[in-house]
Amino acid sequence: MAEVLIEIREASKKYDSGPPALDALDLTVRPGEALAVLGPSGSGKSTLLNLIAGLDRPSGGSVTVGGVRVDRLGEAASAKYRRERIGMVFQFFNLLDDLTVTDNVLLPAQLAGMGRTEARARAQELLAYLGIDRHARAYPGRLSGGERQRVAVARALMNRPSLLLADEPTGALDTASGDDVRQLLTDLNADGQTIVLVTHDLALSEACATRTIELVDGRLVRDHVRAVAR
Amino acid sequence: MSALGRVVRSGVGRRRVQTTVLVLTTLIAVAFSILGAGLLVASQAPFDHAFARQQGAHLTAQFDGSKATQAQLAATARAKGVSATAGPYAVAPLNLTLRLTKDPRTGGPADISISLPQATVAGRASAKGAVDKVGLDSGKWATSPGQIVLSADLVPPDIEAGATVKVTGMPGAPTLTLVGIARSVGHSADGWVSPAQLAALTPRSAPPSYQMLYRFDSAATSSQVAADRAVIAAAVPSGALTGSQSYLSVKEQADSNTGAFVPFVVAFAVIGLLLSVLIISLVVSGAVVAGTRRIGILKALGFTPLQVVRAYVGQALIPALAGAGLGVVCGNLLSVPLMGEVAGAYRTGTLLIPLWVDFAVPAGALALVTATALVPALRAGRLRTVQVITVGRTPRAGRGRRIQNLVGRLPLPRALSLGLAHPFARPSRTATVAVAVVFGAVAVTFAVGLNFSLTAIQKDRDREGVGSVVVLPGRGPQAQGPMGEGAPVLSDPAAASAAISKQRGTKAYFGATGTEVHVAGITSAVPVTAYQGDSSWGAYRMNAGRWFSAPGEAVAPTRFLHAAGVRIGDSVTLSDHGRSVRLRIVGETFDLTDDGMTVRTEAASLTTLDPGLKAGQYNIALMPGTDLKTYLSSLNSALGGGGAEAVSTAVVFDSSSSVIMIMEALIATLTLLLVAVAVLGVLNTVVLDTRERIHDLGVFKALGMSPRQTVAMVLTSVASTGLVAGLIGVPIGIAVHGWITPLMGHGVGTNIPAADIDVYHAPQIALLALGGLVIAGAGALLPAVWAARTRTGNALRTE
Hints:
heterodimer; A: 230 residues; Rossmann fold; four-stranded antiparallel β-sheet; 7 helices; globular; B: alpha+beta; six-stranded mixed β-barrel; ATP binding (chain A); transmembrane transporter activity (chain A); ATP-binding (chain A); MacB-like_ATP-bd (chain A)
């Protein structure tokens, strides 16, 4: 049996009232896959991403990532798990406006206690790799949407996570910037980065996902493998 | 419900944290303002108010019952100028011993006997009456035989009803039960029993004695009271009026007590009121500013600027109204123990928060809330809609970036450097925290300084017990003071002096004796202490000048100098039995013994008045390393017993003062309350701030910030502010202390030595400066923990 990076068993999530956001979902993701999670609004896509990231806990079932039972982690262990294994990219970037691009990118490494020199070198390397090194000392507010999302990706990759989670990474971008991010994620996956992305953007899913699943009302209704993970 | 009403209701109901903060802020501010205002009102002429409340007696007169009948005494109520009377009440001087089976301090079982000073006990059926409505501090009035009520001025603090009171010196030593502690502002008696009980306690052979309590139409001055007294004396048979007490002399004593308390009570009250006003202003305006984006949305939906303003003022007023109501209740509940302490200090009986304060304070608080909500709401209402939505997303980007960059470069864990940089991003919030901490630091610094000063004053106010050992007249025959009025003296001081001098371990010693003389310009007798030998090591603390060093020189305290109208360098004439001596005043002592009137000089200065002046005691300082027990034993053997006895000064002289103890308790209570308000001020601000930053906190947590790092970041975000505010508050507190402490001294008619005011030294100042950090940290801890516990997913979803 092939190695599994994410293993979700019978995971469900209920909020205060109404139908469950996730309903007994089973899912496995192997290293190197680029999984696109599709579905209409309210289908449970972001909830799934939050459970994998340890941002939220399932009401039932289990979520295991890299052998770690994420659903059983306390707040401190959950933070450590995110620092060491997860990189997150958000629709609205969630960059801190009062920190420069470099300082935003450095943040996960600094929280993890990485040495100053090593962290700076890694940040420079990422900024150069993502083509935004000329903005290193700028503040996020002065960058275009695409550039900001690249900064967010750089920040997500800072601690070399085994898993990159992206929540509507092109949702707030214009067409050109969206293309830019699509290409970036494709390239990252080509370099072996496992990615789980939640999106409404079919073009994004077509461009970079090796596998696509579709959720409706918290249930998995389609699971389509487009190609063998690279 | 109108759209405006729905907006207000949803704003109050859905924003629960903000609503809670507003309720809490108004509650605390109103509660403390009620306490502050109550203290201020209580500090305005407390004796006069209590006297008016109790319909105190202008004159307490005592009559010989064998010379005037009760009917004749009752008839004096119709004498000219008398407006009201109470009595006649039978009275008797009784020697009482209090027996306690419970330790009043620990509450544990004990068997304690306390001999009370001779007490004037009145037989009175009721505490009420047209004059002198005696106020019960605790318990009930003595209505049955075997019961007694004692004056709070007679018994030690913390004594409760239920204790046993033994009447000594009576056949059979009858025992009574203490059923109440009461207070007569005019000091009409020291205790009260039922008339039947008093009759039982009065020996049949003793002439009956009665008390009448009078209020007069005119009794503002001592001459008016004297004239009224003369009218009463004339209304009864000659010689029937055996004694009387004017309320003016009681008032003088009470005012001298309250004089020391009023300055610091008022200072604390003013600090509390200012702190309350500031906290309300800052938190309410902060809450409205935090809702600016919502104002933008309302405007986008078509709300007019006026509707927006009404909505936001309403949103602030509803929780404020609830908080004000609760604050009135809490303020009045808190006032019970606090005003009790103040009443004890002022000796005025029960003090209550005046009703008008209960209305005026919440009304003022609500007006303040309206005003402070109005300003930012009006500003937001006038802004263009897009602008409001843009600026409403807090914090405004770009503030303090340079400093944040610099702080980010510091070799600190990132959570700490993020926290340290935060104050520069939100200067107004930072100012709120700073103001609250400054007030807290001022209160703590002031209180600590007062405590140090009171401790020093306690030590310096009475130096009769200076040294380790004192030789006093022993149990054998004692000679009387040569001038008749003085204290007992040693029968053979020369022999005692020789024994002390020869005793191994004696480092230094001097003799002292007390007498009384007359000084021109002062009507009452003036106490003089005459020293033999080198007394410089036992000198009193000097306010100015120096200790005397030669015959003909003297030192005296501030009150004496004022009374005699002399200054340092002037001479005063002491006279007695037709002889007189002139002494030059060379120093002003800090000396509270004998009401601050004691003149101190060498015994040789008084040889003209009395060449045979003998020492009443010897104070001895021991060589380092001398064993006190061995020294005492050896010296007592040398003294030979009988005429003189060496004892440890610690055994004989109790330097503690009940007034200072009450002061220290009151200062501790007030400081605790002020610090609590300061901490809550910080808490309110940090809660609002953390709520606003919740999305950023979610981002940090999503990037892997641990709960501990989150707590550290929030705490660090107030740490620098707390430290700076502490550094600002400490010098202000020192200045307030430097201003108030001399006023307290003046309240009791003395200057206070500079050494007792300059009590702050570098280590204390350093610790006090850290107090700001502690206050800020204590206020931020709860929101920090809340931030750490917030689920990351929820935080990220928060707008």
